[in-house]
Amino acid sequence: MDDNKRYKAVIIGGSAGSFSVVSKILSKLDPDFPVPVIICLHRLKHVRSGLVEGLNLKSKIKVVEPDDKERITGKHAYLAPSNYHLFIEYDNTFHLSTEETLNHSRPSIDYTFSSAAYTYRDKVLGIILTGANKDGANGLKEIHEKNGTTIIQDPDSCDIDTMTKAALKLFRPDYVMTPEKIAEYLNQLAV
Amino acid sequence: MPSIFNTDIVVSMGSGFGIKEVKELSSVMEESTGIPYGHMPVSFLKRRLAYIFKKHNIRNPETFKQMLETEVYRERLAYDFPVDTTEMFRDPGFWRYLRSLLKSMVISDRINVWFPEVSSGEEVFSFLIIAKELGIRDKFNIICQHHSEERLEEIKRGVLFNKNLSVNNSNYIRIEGSGVFENYYSLVDNVFILKEFLLKDIQTVHGYFLNNPAPDETGIIIFRNKMLYYDKEVSETCARKLWDSLLPGGIMTIGAKEQMPEISGEKPEYLNTKEKIFKKHGFEINWNNG
Known about the structure:
The complex is a heterodimer of chains A (191) and B (290).
Chain A: E1 9-14, H1 19-28, E2 37-41, H2 51-58, E3 62-64, E4 76-79, E5 85-88, E6 94-97, H3 109-120, E7 124-128, H4 137-145, E8 149-153, H5 162-170, E9 175-177, H6 179-190
Parallel strand pairs in A: 1-2, 1-7, 2-4, 3-4, 7-8, 8-9
Antiparallel strand pairs in A: 5-6
Chain B: H1 8-13, H2 19-33, H3 42-55, H4 61-67, H5 71-80, H6 92-104, E1 105-106, E2 111-115, H7 122-133, E3 140-146, H8 149-157, E4 159-160, H9 165-174, E5 185-188, E6 191-194, E7 202-206, E8 218-222, H10 232-245, E9 246-253, E10 269-272, E11 277-279, E12 286-287
Parallel strand pairs in B: 2-3, 2-8, 3-7, 8-9
Antiparallel strand pairs in B: 1-12, 4-6, 5-6, 9-11, 10-11
């Protein structure tokens, strides 16, 4: 794996319980982290506010919920809005959708990972965190198959390891790491 | 010939299609139907085409192109391709705000409420229930427009989809409706149907809204989460057409995460930024607090 390749995006997926892990990673990022961080978390569909505000409390880069067709830029973290799927389009913009749920989820992590795999191919880094269902495993595998880099949170460090173990069953990731190591690894990319 | 869509994963991700193939198919679809499929996001087209191929048991693109030549198949496509509205009272905050607006309207003549490109009834039914609870249901003519006759027929009959009933009910509780949600529908021949007293004065218009004249004298336009499925160019065309057809003082709504394009070099005025409700300048429709 070539650690020096320039990534166009980092994609992070996890269930609602991964909020604290995502918050920890964002709090340790270099404030000038140049690569867009795109986050897809399972969340309550009727609660539209609170999550971004919560992440922004500790994050070193600005966290926003993108609008449809919004351009993706560095030094930002983007959180998938509630009750919308989040896709990355070929012109480096977001596409939101109200299509049917996938894996009982909207936003679905599989969808976000999969669209990132097709858009960025080997220039994407996908990370799957703690979670209670299998959503995300197939999408992360697609990133792996397009020669993107994949990281799975060490199941021993997960509150619930269903999501990470489902991914581990499908393919061998580039790294299995604790949240602290994931943040360290990301900051190396910023150098 | 085995189908390329042989697993659910390939279908849901749309990974059976390449970009070139998607662009070619969407261009043929646009030519045969007059609907701007070629201006839809590629990732969306990939998934939706995979879904259509599986649902219609189509094994290769050539067969699909041939099928598009018949009117019967074009109607089937018009029925199956659009994305349904997810649920009734989606974004309860939007419906609470809309209810407060309707309450403040100064209504002398009946007001036309236009639902362009309405592929399923959830938004229409939500509006009807709110208007009924305010005691002003008879003040509105409801105009539903779509390019699938069968979709329009379902809306006119008040068909509710079972899978969403519990979500609809939860949302109804969140908007703090004054009634009981279950009282608004009944089970008829194994289908949940909205009660008839809500469905009076629903006018349906068959045809794609961008290719047909807009209804006259429209005071309210509900167009939420429809521009998601178009590129910037067609989204702007949609917004301009709808805005131009709105009476002065009228309101237009789009989805909470959609962006309202500039119209004739100006951004329409927000009535509610979060819920993306816009009001047109003028006084043909008046609001006590608008």
